[in-house]
Structure formats: structure tokens, C-alpha cells
Amino acid sequence: MAAEARACSETLRTKTTLGTLSFLSKDLLSMEYKTKDALGRDHALCLRLPPTYPDTDPLSMGPDTRLRAFVALPVAFDPLETSAPRRAHGEANGLPSAGAGAGAGGLAGIFRRFQDTVASLDPFWTATAALDEDTWVLEPEPEAGSAKRVGFDYRRILVDRHVSMILTFNDPTETELGPSNPRVTFLGPRARVEAMEERVAAFWANREQRDPLGSSVVAYLEEMLGQVLPRRPRQDGTQGEEETHQLVPMCGICYDSGLRTGKTIPNVTCENPKCTQVYHDRCLLEWLQSDQTSRQVFSKIFGACPYCSDPIVCKLLGNC
Ligand SMILES: [Zn+2]
Ligand SMILES: [Zn+2]
């Protein structure tokens, strides 16, 4: 069996069309398989085979002895899901050849399905990489040691000092830009949010053709909003510290924007258009609870904005 696995690993290393087996444990049961997307970035599939392999076909195992797969993808990936006919039990002996067709079972089939899944997401990878590169992404945080956020199907990006938007790719395999790809949700003072929502609706109402999703996503968003989106300042300091502070919404109570400390980003905004100060719900809740004039009604607490004294509402948090 060891020889077979090694042979398979060798074949996989040489077959560039199949990606690379980048790790194989001593017991030959744990492995990491890597394939590249259209941008040349690696995507890894980690597999753990049950100890009974290869006496049992990994495609016909029960839940207790299932092989386990770990991936960071914005879509579900089930290594055992296949529309191809399964091999007869008698043939399930040893590893199939790495050059087998797309319908093949066994490890090569799993690798190929993973590769197909990664490839099917190329428009999504390109669009999200453009967002990560050319806008100011507030959430999610990039993976440690890289600028990648591969497992996530959304981006929350900064629009200006008071407004951010969440872009959700509900179906990351969708290849065209449209009113719901990505779905846009604005966060900020109600009046500004409503105005932007109207603008977006008008933009799509007047647009006949559907353009492909890709690196032009940022230009699209800017055209849709009629404004240039701010970029995250470079580490080399081409954008000054002061400018950064003016742009990033800081909690009016703890003065933290959540960007450097990894804390959450302020998520409650004062509705007074002259104020529009933002707060963390936790900070605001604590503040309002300590204020004698605040009133609690059901799960909400009504009080005054610490900045402008206009009415402000905060939901009580789950653990309060
Ligand atoms: Zn705060
Ligand atoms: Zn206020």
C-alpha cells in the first residue's frame, strides 16, 4: 500500500493539471493537496483517511469511518459527493491512477472535484481579490500572515467616514454582476443609507446588460455609488495616520476603531445627521445603563447620544 500511495503522490506531483500533493504523513493517511486559482493562489484540501483504507473504499464508508476533509472555501465541499457511478466493490483495491477521468472515484476523483470547485470560483476569487486590494475591507480579518480571506463569501468595506457596506456573494459560483450579486447592505445613519439604496436601485433599473464578475467589481461599485471608494492605507505609510483617523469610524466611547486591536468595529450609529457618531453596542449599552435618564423597554434601552444628546436606541445584548 505504501508503494502505491507513494506512486500516486509522485504521479500527482508531476501532473500539473491535477495540482500537488504538498504533504503526506508517515502513515500515509493524512495529506494536503493544493491547487491554484486563476490568480495563481494556492487552495488547500486536507484529507484524513480512515485507518481501514484501502481495504474499504473511501467513497462507500459509513459515518464513523468516513474520510475527513478540511477546506477553506466559500462554498460547501463534500469529498464523497459524486454523480459519477461508483466503482464496484471488487475494484476498490488500492489507489486509482491519478490520470483517471473526471468521473473517477478514489483520491484522484476527490482531488479533481476539489480542483473543479476551486476553478468554478475563479470570477469570485478575482472579484474578492480586487476588493481586498483596492478598497478598505473592514471585515472579515485576513488570515494570519497573508492578505487572503479565502473562506469568506462577504466583505464589509468602508464607503466613507459614516457609511460602510456589506457585499454578500450568496452564490459564489455566480459569474455575472447584478443587483443581488453581490447583494449590497449599507450600514450607517438611516438618511444616508436610504439615499444610497435609492441610488443603487436606480443604477440597476437603468442597466440592461449584465457584465461578468471580475476585477472590474470596484469600478462598478464606484459607478453605482457615484463616488470613489477609499483604499486601506499601505503599510509603507503613503496615507498619513491623521487621514486614516478621519476616515475610520472610531467608537465615541472607547475611541477604538477595532481595526488595529482586532476588536469589533463600531456597529451603532447616532441617527442625528449632524452627529452620526458611531459606537460599539457594548460600549453604548454600558453608557446608557449608567445614565439615570435611560429607559429600558423590552429588549431595548432608550437614552441620549453621548455626543449630541439626541435620542439613541441600543439593543440589549444576549448575555445581559
Ligand atoms: Zn467602543
Ligand atoms: Zn449623536
Care to give the gist of this entry?
The chain is an alpha+beta fold.
- Order of secondary-structure elements: HEEEEHHEEEEHHHEEHEEE
Shape: globular
Q: Cα distance, first to last residue? A: 57 Å
Give the C-alpha Rg: 25 Å
Work out the count of structural domains. Answer: 3
Number of strands: 13
In round numbers, the mean pLDDT is 80
Percent helix among the residues?
25-40%
Largest beta-sheet details: 4 strands, antiparallel
What are the bound molecules?
zinc ion
| Class by SSE composition | alpha+beta
| Unreliable runs | 84-104
Residue share in β-strands: 15-25%
Give the strand order, joined by hyphens, for the main sheet. Answer: 1-2-3-4
- Compute the number of helices: 7
Question: Layout of SSEs?
Answer:
Blueprint: H1 2-14, E1 20-24, E2 30-36, E3 42-48, E4 68-71, H2 106-120, H3 122-134, E5 137-139, E6 154-158, E7 164-168, E8 183-187, H4 190-205, H5 217-225, H6 241-247, E9 268-269, E10 278-279, H7 281-289, E11 295-297, E12 300-304, E13 311-315
Antiparallel strand pairs: 1-2, 2-3, 3-4, 5-6, 6-7, 7-8, 9-10, 11-12, 12-13
Bound molecules: zinc ion (2 copies).
Describe this protein with a few key phrases.
320 residues; 18% strand; 4-stranded antiparallel β-sheet; binds zinc ion; alpha+beta; 3 domains; Herpes Virus-1; 13 strands; Ubiquitin Conjugating Enzyme; 7 helices
